[in-house]
Amino acid sequence: MNLGDIPRRNSLRFPYKKALVFGDVSLSWCQVNERVNALVYALRDRGIQKGDRVGILMENCHQYLETYWALAKSGAIAVPLNYRLSIYETKELLCSAEPKALIVGEEYVGKMQDLRDSGIDIGCVIGVGNVSDQIENYESLLLKYPTNEPESIGKEDDIFAIFYTSGTTGLPKGAMVSNRNLEANCFNQFYADKSSYDDINLVATPLYHMGAVFMATTYSYLGCTNNILKHFTPRGALEIIQREKVTVCLLIPTMINMLLNHPNINNYDLTSLRLIFYGGGPMHVQVLKKAIDLIGCGFTQGYGLTETLEATFLVSEDHVLEGTEKQQQRLYSAGREALSAEVRTIDYNGNDLPPGEVGEVLIKSRSVIRGYWKMPELTAETIKNDWFYTGDLGYLDEERYLFIVDRKKDMIISGGVNIYPKEIEEVIYTNPAVLEAAVIGIPDELWGESVKALVVLKDGCRISEDELIEYCKQHMASYKKPKYVEFLSSLPKNPTGKILKRVLREKYWEGHVRSV
């Protein structure tokens, strides 16, 4: 099946059940499928054929998921675009994807026009929201076309979408994700989340990002209701959880930290929540423990990349705060392999490593992409004999719990010794004055690299550089402690909340060459 079959099947099984809720709009599965069908006919009438790319440039809304499903039915390929990218960056992506059409939200019509003025051919344009008469309006267009079931020509092995990676190391790469990749991930997710037909999912992360898409796909597959938040704010998320009785949601660690530090969190009724799924970046254990204690629902972690989807899960039962030493240590892990995934760790020579030894993490599963769009050399470097080389460093323990130590590129080599920033950050986060922290390596003439911590303090809290360095020294080997600490008002992040260490390193490494 292709993902366009989701609204079709659900319209047969649960025609009057809520499917998508966005602000004041509430649509049943029957209504959603009819709207998707009308969009399929409209796109075909505008020359969109199987294999054609269609760009999507808008914020979260119900039309976003409708567009995904309509393109899947049509066999066309979605190209979700990060709306926060610059004109230059967006132009690069469009030159790569060569879309024949663009679905654009009202907020980005001006950006679309700037792209056209720069010489980019983006084909026909369909506008969502209040757009000018020069642009075809999405809602008006749906009214012109039939709602009966069109012939679905999308197949499960077809590319569903080109997801451009978050670009923490430079311009994004286009990961070609198939319908089969996402469907395979659904079954892994069902088991890990203990998902049910009655779940109500909150879509709080951007729908141009894989996290929001695989969660929406998983719960839509079951016929659940998806409540869509236009963009995340702590207050907005808390209000919709309380109002709509949300039971599950994906939140990245930065979002969870923002919720925990919202001054009025205790004024909201969050008892409907049975599970928060987290991933997409390091979840520091001190933050996790506070979240479990304060929110009180189950937590499940997923580890994977855009290119692999979820490869391991630390399920709710593994989140034991007062258990044995081994159980508490598992909070630092990414869990064990998904049902249809396999994980290896290898050394620099490609040899498999025994439990406890750090090496590069490799993943094999039905959710691994077929490759990168127009990048055959990079595809060959990254996927070898069906194994995806993640670039993450980690180790497996005797029970095959995976512990991610750090990214290869983030590892600090000081005096020939490997130092892992994530380990230092874990310690810094235990200090009650610290809100956020990032540890990087900076040039050092003697040692090659020195450890520097960039820290954001909580409102009203104070701690000096020397005090924080001494705090770290008390909790770790002295050679790992930061040599320098700089206090900032905020840390640079991409739109999905990942801290951009590349940006933090740039000013220190200009004119230098890193060995990592």
UniProtKB/TrEMBL annotation:
Domain (AMP-dependent synthetase/ligase) spans 9-373
Q: Name one GO biological process term.
A: fatty acid metabolic process
> Which GO terms fall under molecular function for this chain's record?
medium-chain fatty acid-CoA ligase activity
Pfam families, alphabetized: AMP-binding, AMP-binding_C
What InterPro entries is this protein classified in? AMP-bd_C, AMP-bd_C_sf, AMP-binding_CS, AMP-dep_synth/lig_dom, ANL_N_sf
Keyword annotations: Ligase
**Origin: domain of life:** Bacteria
**Domain AMP-binding enzyme C-terminal per the UniProt entry, residue ranges:** 423-498
Under the heading PANTHER family, the entry gives: ACYL-COA SYNTHETASE, MEDIUM-CHAIN ACYL-COA LIGASE ACSF2, MITOCHONDRIAL
In the record, the note on similarity to other proteins reads: Belongs to the ATP-dependent AMP-binding enzyme family.
Protein name as catalogued: Acyl-CoA synthetase (AMP-forming)/AMP-acid ligase II
Q: Which organism encodes this protein?
A: Desulfoscipio gibsoniae DSM 7213
